[in-house]
Amino acid sequence: MRTVKVYEEAWPLHSPFVISRGSRSEACVVVVEIEEDGIKGVGECTPYPRYGESLASVMAQIMTILPELEKGLSRDALQQALPAGAARNAVDCALWSLEAQQQNQSIASFLGVVVPQTIVTAQTVVIGEPAQMAASAKALYDAGARLLKVKLDDHLLSERMVAIRSAVPLATLIVDANESWQIEGLAARCQLLADLDVAMLEQPLPAKDDAALENFIHPLPICADESCHTRESLSSLKGRYEMVNIKLDKTGGLTEALALARQAREEGFSLMLGCMLCTSRAINAALPLTGQVSFADLDGPTWLAVDVSPALNFTTGSLHL
Fold first, then answer.
1. Residue 157: how many CB atoms within 10 A of its CB?
2. CB 3.0-4.6 Å disulfide test: which of 35, 83, 267, 288 passes with 40?
3. How far apart are CA 293 and CA 298, in angstroms?
4. How far, in Å, are 118, 186, 216 from residue 220 at the CA level?
5. How confident is the model over 240-257, as pLDDT tens digits?
6. Model confidence over 47-101: pLDDT tens digits?
7. DSSP calls for 69-84
């Protein structure tokens, strides 16, 4: 018989996290602990309002399978018991953690996956005035970050990007619009980003408007984030995106994330590995995917005023294992 604990946590941020959909001052997560014969597995998820999730809804979803989980529900059975999303992620990762701990291994070692000892992670430049964003980018670059993810909305795009590129001429830049743009003017914006040597554009349009990207000629790769959740998303992304952003909170855990990564690569997509605002627990579960991706965006815990203990070893722009 297993013992299962499910609880909420709120982790204050050291500074506001501002994107096109609003500002956050704390990371609100749900944690699942599964203990069996004195060995404990832990999983964490971040409910995301964009997908209709809240702490309450995620807790309620997990509670619906609690009796089965205590009786030994398997990871395979979990995939049918809950839909893709944050709730399944926390449970799936707790089960992976438990299985690995029972073998006295990390999840990556349990899977037979070699994880790079140093992982370059994007550091996020949140939305602000052009000079403010440029100063933030320069401070991150000077502290060691070489890959910067710039959050944008529908305003001051050229002013912000020109200021940032001037401040960090050698940094690798990726841009995330979080669905805030329209098809009108998109071609000109893509050309501007290409002229500024931006390496990739993430989710420029609302997911419902993806058809506008069909045969849309663009001079830099476009990555699907909100448009890509599980393997079922891939068929609608062909001819529209070159890359997909895999997040365990979208896939519903590591099980589907591994399958999504495999199928996406087989179908010719490049991979990005992302995260929500979270603690090191959530990043630890995603580590087996790091060797497959073109870009890792795993800086969620670096926004926390204090991380969970034991924490992963982050420096600005890098994760050291």
1. 21
2. 35
3. 12
4. 27, 12, 11
5. 999 999 999 999 999 999
6. 999 999 999 999 999 999 999 999 999 999 999 999 999 999 999 999 999 999 9
7. HHTT--HHHHHHHS-S
Pairing of strands 198-202, 172-176: parallel
Strand partners, 32: 6, 43
Neighbouring residues of 117: CB distance < 8 A, sequence distance ≥ 6: 320, 321
Q: Comparing C-alpha atoms, which of 133, 213, 124 is closest to residue 165?
A: 133
Active site residues: 151, 247
Which structure tokens are listed for 90?
């926390």
Burial 96-117, CB ≥16 within 10 A → b, else e: bbbbbbeeeebbbebbebebee
Report in angstroms the alpha-carbon separations of 214 from 84, 197, 211: 26, 24, 5
Residue 317 and residue 120 in contact, taking contact as beta carbons nearer than 8 Å: yes
